[in-house]
Amino acid sequence: MKAKGTTTTADIGLIGLAVMGENLALNMESKGFSVAVYNRTAAKTEHFVSGRGAGKKFTGCYSLAEMAAVLSRPRKVFIMVKAGEAVDETIEQLLAVLEKGDVIIDGGNSNYQDTIRRNAYVESKGLLYVGTGVSGGEEGALKGPSIMPGGSPAAWPLVKPLLRAIAAKTKKGVACCQWIGENGAGHFVKMVHNGIEYGDMQLICETYDLMKHLLALSHDEMGNLFEKWNKRKLSSYLIEITRDIVRYKDSDGEPLLEKILDTAGQKGTGKWTAIAALDLGAPLTLIGEAVFGRCLSAAKTERVKAAQIISGPRIARLYDTLKETFTKDLEKALYAAKVVSYAQGFLLMRAAAKEHKWNLNYGGIALTWRGGCIIRSAFLDRIKNAFDKNPDLENLLLDPFFARVIEDAQPSWRRVLHMAVHNGIPIPAFSSGLSYLDAYRRKWLPANLLQAQRDYFGAHTYERVDRPRGEFFHTDWTGHGGDATASAYTV
Known about the structure:
Strand content: 5-15%
Number of helices: 19
Number of strands: 9
Mean pLDDT: 94
Helix content: 40-55%
Low-confidence stretches: none
Structural class: alpha/beta
Order of helices and strands: EEHEHEHEHEHEHEHEHHHHHHHHHHHH
């Protein structure tokens, strides 16, 4: 088959016509760009150009050579295929038909380490590479997603008009698309976005658990509460859709939510975020608990068995007179825990920037997430303001605004945890967030004992409070350990 469509030249090529690819192609065309589309299965390409793409500025291509022939130079090709080997295979095929100076853009959920490798490889062949996070799901892809590009700096001027045109816009008309940094920076930031998304979702799920079992609210009452919160400081996409979900009725008039099996799935980006945090030594505790929460939910058979064997406290539902007070506490606790989750996410990005020598604009990242993506919320304006005031801010919790939020919310947060623990309701994300806060705000932690233990069994040495930092000591704790010490002392 030969290329088929309404244009003889195209501004951009797009490979992969699954739902996200199709919607991105339609988004591009709606913004005035002509698009050459290709799918490994020819029937899929034919179906698109004669269906949703009929009569529009699309060229259906049935080989990558055909696509290369119709693209204006320097060529720009957007890949939307499954992360992993499929991306590497597509890159190899493109290198055979593209020329020096052309741009390959990976818009999938690739691991940032793969993107670092691919960026170096493609540049070694004389082409430019962009690894870009795209967030917003099917609707975002069609109407305007959050876009997080990184890679070859020379590629940014070439792809900037297109990416900013198709990106979501803030209320002030600013595109939710900022250049993130070199090689894997874009995909790293998208990965952290997804990790924060895990944390947000887990916190909301724990909130729902408390509403259902401690407050004994009906689903309509839950919906009303989420609707109220969505008009205040918790205003966000995830609160908005949770309002709709808890209200949704099945065909029999009963809440559909209670008919959904309580086992959560995951695609891996949350796990990658937790692994990156461990590799970089960043305390991503709340997001880590969110990942483990999904893992624990998957052990449904074991949990059902454990429920018959292991007892716990009986849930004592709150009296109506206490519900209003607890609801206010819950709103404050959710907001404060969300602050900690984002603080940890930005802390991880700071650690990665130091490791990979990226010059990340944290305020710009917050702006990029302000619209189109899953974690979009009014709250992100506050984060942008914090980094605009102090680009070198070490931790969001040190910003005056967020410090006041935490100070005000602490009593409520602790009361929520007390009630949950007293009634045996698991709230791992709420709990880990507060534990992190308590550890972060303390001048002293019991790690001195831990370091003494390491020195006792492994001669790992320690530093002393009465000597300058950087001087290391070892004690022969048993009297027969000798003077030899281990070489590793990592803080």
